[in-house]
Amino acid sequence: MGVPTAGPRIRFAVVLARHAAAWLLAASFAGGFAHAAAAKPSRGQADTAPAWSPDGRRIAFTSTRDGKAEIYVVNANGTGLRRLTSSSADDFAPAWSPDGRRVVFTSTRDGNAEIYLVDAGGGAERRLTRSAAGDYTPAWSPDGSRIAFVSRRHGTFDLYVMDADGRHVRRLTRAPGGDYGPAWSPDGRWIAFASNRSGSFDLYVTDPRGGGVRRLTRAYGVDFAPDWSPDGTTIVFRSDRSGDVELYSIGADRSRLRRLTRSPGVDFAPVWSPDGRRIAFASTRSGAAGIYVMRADGRNVRRLT
Predict the structure, then answer these.
(1) What does DSSP assign to residue 222?
(2) Are 136 and 129 in contact (CB under 8 A)?
(3) Cα 80 to Cα 88: distance, rounded to the nearest angstrom
(4) Where are the domains of the chain?
(5) Is the overall model pTM greater than 0.90, yes or no?
(6) Which of 232, 273, 147 is nearest to 281 (CA)?
(7) Nearest CA to 221 among 191, 237, 245, 193?
(8) Residue 78 CA: distances (Å) to CA of 119, 185, 284
(9) Which of 81, 134, 231, 303 is most buried as measured by Cβ atoms within 10 A of its Cβ?
(10) How does residue 44 score in pLDDT terms, banded at 50, 70 and 90?
(11) Would you say 181 and 17 are in contact if contact means Cβ atoms under 8 Å apart?
(12) Long-range Cβ contact pairs of 73-78 (< 8 A, separation 24 or more)
């Protein structure tokens, strides 16, 4: 599957890693790999990259409804939409702190993709990383002490971990190809991610302390954007293994592979609700990408934005 590579500028990335939109279109950075990034659709706004608040009452997401990518928050029932960030560049890929008080995200506001932090109620943003290579798709550890993210600061896209204040950055993976979309297990013992280290995009699991890497899926196509169930037994992800881009789940022990959605559009960026009963995701099933919620078994799909 060819992916264009050109130019150092991200044109609305709705995410490098954790939110692999099936468009596989225009974003690129540092003249390199462009995957899982969504160009702004011709039909108007795109809402993508949902992230549940820890109490399950709100969902943060990325939207281009005001012309460029910004972070918004909406109540889990679809009411109370509000804009959280505002900059002249793109803000995308939000993730909540475990206490629900802060949101971490990626921004190009200083000319390069870096990790930023903002209070959940809004206010001044604070920059956490500084790298000429670009840092993407942050994910908070369950205990709130660390943030995992993706960076190309050593030439290839690898996973890194830093303290929640941006200090003590440590490289976690080293592989040919690239590693993307870190997602912590609920107990903090594992990080799931997508990688093409074996030639195709599959899901892997690694020990954040620097242990070994275990392969979780094997598919002809692209498995991407993993997220753990709150009980740690199951991982939801997007895949085009059937020809269409749909949502699947698999047991953390590699058992119980199950297809969850069947849509004429593209379903991607799945995230589990804190109570494990629902999954939020982005989809183009009604045209431009919007945020949807369904039961964890794939039934009762409802559009939020």
Answers:
(1) B
(2) no
(3) 24
(4) 47-303
(5) no
(6) 273
(7) 245
(8) 21, 27, 17
(9) 134
(10) low
(11) yes
(12) 73/120, 74/291, 74/304, 74/305, 76/52, 76/273, 76/293, 76/304, 77/304, 78/302, 78/303, 78/304, 78/305
The per-residue pLDDT for range 126-135, each reduced to its tens digit, is 999 999 889 9
DSSP state of 153: T
Cα–Cα distance for residue pair 158/152, rounded to 1 Å: 6
CA distance 179 to 79: 36
Structure tokens at 127: 């920059």
CA distance between the termini of the chain = 30
47-303, CATH topology level: Neuraminidase (2.120.10)
Q: Which residues are CB-neighbours of 3 under 8 A, at least 6 positions away? A: 24, 33, 34, 35
Distance CA 272, CA 275 (A): 8
- Is residue 211 pLDDT above 80, yes or no? no
Q: How far is Cα of residue 24 from the mean position of the Cα atoms in its chain?
A: 14
Q: Hey, is 53 helix, strand or coil?
A: coil
Tokens of 290: 């919007």
Identity (one letter) of the amino acid at 15? V
- What are 233-290's pLDDT values in tens digits? 999 999 999 999 999 999 999 999 999 999 999 999 999 999 999 999 999 999 999 9
- Tens-place pLDDT, residues 92-103: 999 999 999 999
Task: List, in order, residues 6 or more apart from 255 with CB less than 8 Å away.
Answer: none
**Phi (first) and psi of residue 187, to 5 degrees:** -90, 0
Assigned token pair, 250: 């698999």
Is the Cβ–Cβ distance between 107 and 138 less than 8 Å?
Answer: no
